Amino acid sequence: MPKKPLRLAVVSCGAIAQAHLRGIAACRDGEVLAEGGPDPFAEQMREFVSAVLEGREPGNSGRDVLPSLAVIDAAYKSVEERRAVELRQDEGGRWEIQ
């Protein structure tokens, strides 16, 4: 059975943004506002390989994605507990879900 392509859709106030393996599209009220653009994963991998070959830290390090991961973790916790959760950063820079 063929696998369906991976897709992420974000919907808000009549607008939708979709990211999938073939590119990105933004729509509002059924009209496509923008689509295409570089593959974000390919661009990230290209930067990572360049950084390794040049012996430097990538432009986007693992530390840069920690806030995004905290939001994802909070979303999962919110769904799991069926309640709104609060996300705060402590003085040490760690993210806490309350």
How many domains?
2
- Class by alpha and beta content: alpha+beta
Strand content: 25-35%
> What sequence of helices (H) and strands (E) makes up the elements?
EEEEHHEE
Largest beta sheet: strand ordering = 1-2-3-4
Instruction: Specify the oligomeric state.
Output: single chain
The tally of strands reads: 6
Report the span from N to C terminus: 41 Å
* Overall average pLDDT: 75
Helix and strand arrangement:
Elements: E1 7-12, E2 15-20, E3 23-28, E4 31-36, H1 40-54, H2 62-81, E5 87-89, E6 95-97
Antiparallel strand pairs: 1-2, 2-3, 3-4, 5-6
Plain-language structure description:
β3 (23-28) and β4 (31-36) form a beta hairpin. The chain is an alpha+beta fold and 98 residues long. The longest helix has 20 residues, at 62-81. Helix content is 36%, strand content 31%. It has a four-stranded antiparallel beta sheet with strand order 1-2-3-4, with no helix packed on it. A two-stranded antiparallel ribbon has the order 5-6. The chain folds into two domains: 7-60, no CATH class; 62-98, no CATH class.
